[in-house]
Amino acid sequence: MSDIKSLRQEIVAKTIEYYEAKFAHKDFIPGKTRVNYAGRVFDEKEIVNAVDASLDFWLTEGRFSEAFAEKLSEFLNIEHVLLTNSGSSANLLAFSALTSEKLGDKHLKPGDEVISVAAGFPATVAPIVQYGLIPVFVDVDIPTYNIDPEALKAAITPKTRCIFLAHTLGNPFDLGTVMELAGKHNLWVIEDNCDALGSKYKGQYTGTFGHISTMSFYPAHHITTGEGGAVATNDPQLAKLIRAFRDWGRDCYCMGGENNTCGKRFSQVFGKLPLGYDHKYVYSEVGYNLKMTDWQAAIGSAQIDKLPSFCEQRKANFKKHTAILSKYPQYFILPEATKNSDPAWFSYIVTVKDDAPFTRDELTAYLNSQLVETRNLFAGNMTKQPAYINRDFRIAGELPNTDKITGSTFFLGTYPGLTDEMFQYMEKVFADFLSKH
Length: 437
What we know:
With 437 residues, this protein is α/β, with parallel strands linked by helices. The chain has a single domain (18-249, 284-437), classed as Aspartate Aminotransferase, domain 2 (3-Layer(aba) Sandwich), CATH 3.40.640.10. Helix content is 37%, strand content 13%. An eight-stranded mixed β-sheet has the order 1-9-8-5-4-2-3-13, with helices on both faces. Strands 7-6-11 form a three-stranded antiparallel β-sheet, with no helix packed on it. The chain has a three-stranded antiparallel β-sheet with strand order 10-12-14.
């Protein structure tokens, strides 16, 4: 046994040595090194944890999953955090839970309306469509790029049952108005917090206001497990439903490797099954298997310790972009934080003005040719995407800002891996392009 322990220690020591040799030192060469819009930022701790988990060879949820979920729960000060395999799965699970008949008259049903925005990411809208409900697309404000509060108020009808919104690129939406309207009209609220982990509204973390919130740990996000996500709630009934949908739809809540936690495994009646049917194989929801592996959670458990410093660096990088681009007010609309918010910015979003002597696509083509990565604001106008053209949806009012975003908006990175040398290079690239226009 001592040999195994010493061998494990030797492996960890070699892992740290490998990190130093492989990852610790990277030079930036202007014009040759890509300035990514996002990327993994890590040190030896993530790799050591991943190797440690691999040596256990416990492949599904285990000790690291428990530790990671507990750290997330403590960070957000929220009672229940359930890990899953992606942010998209987190959104699916959050929405699935609200369709459960166990919620009685409050459960979401086909034909009910769910308010979202057209300028967003498909993972927020897909579950609405998949369950046969009607997405209601509302326009956004520029320069916050979040739902227009007045348009939201006008969009609510007797058919409205839920508000499902993302905090756009880390900038919190107007949670005061949203939660007030939700309370007034008895609506569910799902916060898609995938781009905003660490952002605050009135001093409180986003992802803690709605009935359910979701997180993503894809490499572009604030912390990463590669693929991965989580669902959070303070409601014990919703937590139980989320777990059921995540774990094949089963009624049992035992952790992997555990049995008979409730003490009634073979003594209950469910549905039309015989008395005493094994509770581990009772399915009370039409669910999936969307769990996270312990190997991923091991990485996440190291990453979340860095989250506060990552968020501060994102805020600092946002200011650096502003210092560069505020020199050109005739060309650009620059982003603004929602009132009463403190965003941990996912990215730096820019809209090219209508009277600029160049287009968004001309600018972004040049930036990318100079190895400065950009991205459009995800799907642009969702109602014009091929997958959604022939789907049932309702547009509340008109979508002029959404259409403007589709043609004129892009974003740059704010992730913690950006260096001062990279910002100096980006400043030169912008200056070179704009000097020609």
